[in-house]
Design goal:
There is one protein chain. With about 140 residues, the protein is an alpha+beta fold. The protein has a single domain, classed as TATA-Binding Protein. The protein is built from three helices and eight strands, in the order βαβββαβββαβ. The strands form two sheets. The protein has a six-stranded antiparallel β-sheet. A hairpin with a 5-residue loop joins strand 5 and strand 6. The model has no long low-confidence stretch (mean pLDDT about 90).
Length: about 140
């Protein structure tokens, strides 16, 4: 137990990426992963992740907007600014579900390998309040 973890959130309303981008920054999260932005490219259906220099942020956001228009699933790495904890955020458009793979500096409960879901729900869950949360599943495997 405790080697990998994710949080799955089913949203009531569809995600608006332009608004969500602002919320990410307002809530102390960033796309800056060691001066790169990691995401799933346009027309990539096998969930292969790519890295681009952070200075290409605007072009990556434009590509992600195109993916939304084409109803393609969105994948972005997000990092918490203060703690450098983060992971792969995947928005499954058809299911209106967010899956956050907690795979960057995963926060664990002191003296154990169990994920500290409380920290993630406090710092991550607020990103989606605007969209209405129908269900949250915290998964550790």
């Amino acid at each position: 137990m405790g080697l990998a973890a994710s949080i799955d959130i089913i949203l009531k309303d569809k995600l608006d990426m332009s608004f969500f981008t602002k919320v990410i920054f307002d809530k102390n999260w960033s796309y800056n992963d060691n001066s790169e932005i990691n995401y799933i490219e346009l027309n990539e259906l096998d969930f292969d992740w790519v890295s681009k220099p952070i200075n290409l942020f605007e072009s990556v956001m434009k590509e992600i907007s195109e993916k939304m228009e084409l109803k393609q699933d969105i994948g972005l790495v997000i990092i918490h600014n203060k703690s450098h904890i983060g992971g792969q955020l995947i928005y499954f458009i058809g299911d209106n579900t967010i899956s956050f793979n907690l795979n960057i500096n995963r926060k664990t409960i002191e003296e154990s390998n169990k994920t500290c879901f409380e920290w993630y729900l406090k710092n991550y869950g607020g990103l989606f309040e605007h969209y209405g949360i129908l269900k949250i599943d915290c998964i550790e495997f």
